[in-house]
């Protein structure tokens, strides 16, 4: 006997409700009593009912899809997996599905946004690595399309975002280095076009001005540079640094690159130099000697963005969804 795919009518017959009531309950309509929605969801699960998304889109104009535009970059290991996991957790059980739209290096970041808008492929967008006056933000605001950014911009028109306070991170990291006795401070910044570059620099320079210490910001490499380039830069420049010196590392890859290079050159961590790294994964837990570190929770950022985009697609004001996550003390990973 051929398998017959369950339909809304099948669920309606099982629950004794009208097809329209079942349809609205499965869409989690607040006009349907919570107990009814739970009963319909349980029946649908038991029957193996899966919505026909093509028909649903024709009927409602909605895709029930949230798209994450993801640019592959190596500075933050596990960034994509952690963010996807957080978003998936937020969307679980909501009837919305998450799709991943790649942003290819070397191609305009606006292209994936235009493609999704033109083809109506999602009800909401999420993307990261924002620029000061990000073209993606501008086009989405003009289109009135729901979106959340991982990072802020300098636009006067407000938009929804979840961001990490990189100003506070850089300041706290630099203060740790000062307390460890460093007599010179350094930092490797991301490319200047990214908004978080400005915040990292603001926090770092605030600590520098307070301390009056000399500082070093390389102009030949950035956080987006290959690890080998960062190693070469520090191999060439460290000889002129007074001891002990300290470096703020806004990512794990740069921290590993700098530390390994300095150790290879005969410098002793904890005596000749100190690093404070932004930790976003468990990678640094495996490294010895242990790093001083401050934590950024990418999973939580994904979860918060998922929660925000669900409300935005239902018309919530963007000003209610501007979240600035604070650095988390990571004393378990601090060097003795």
Overview of this protein structure:
By secondary structure, the protein is α/β, with parallel strands linked by helices. The chain has twelve helices and twelve strands. The chain has helices spanning 8-15, 19-26, 34-47, 53-60, 79-91, 110-119, 135-143, 166-179, 195-211, 227-237, 252-264, 298-312; strands at residues 65-70, 97-102, 124-128, 147-150, 161-164, 184-188, 215-216, 245-249, 273-279, 292-295, 322-325, 328-329. The protein is elongated, with a radius of gyration of 24 Å. This is LacI family DNA-binding transcriptional regulator. Keywords: DNA-binding, Transcription, Transcription regulation. Residues 6-60 form the HTH lacI-type domain.
Which key terms come to mind for this protein?
12 helices, elongated, alpha/beta, disordered C terminus, 336 residues, 6-stranded parallel β-sheet
Summary, kept brief:
This protein has 336 residues and is α/β, with parallel strands linked by helices. It contains twelve helices and twelve strands.
Q: What overall geometry do the principal axes of the alpha carbons give?
A: elongated
Biggest sheet, open or closed, and with what strands and sense?
6 strands, parallel
Alpha plus pi helix count: 12
**Between the first and last Cα atoms, what is the distance in angstroms?**
69 Å
Mean pLDDT: 89
Low-confidence stretches: 331-336
Write the layout of secondary structure elements.
Layout: H1 8-15, H2 19-26, H3 34-47, H4 53-60, E1 65-70, H5 79-91, E2 97-102, H6 110-119, E3 124-128, H7 135-143, E4 147-150, E5 161-164, H8 166-179, E6 184-188, H9 195-211, E7 215-216, H10 227-237, E8 245-249, H11 252-264, E9 273-279, E10 292-295, H12 298-312, E11 322-325, E12 328-329
Parallel strand pairs: 1-2, 1-3, 3-4, 4-5, 5-11, 6-7, 6-8, 8-9, 9-10
Antiparallel strand pairs: 10-12
Helix pairs in contact: 1-2, 1-3, 5-12, 8-9, 10-11
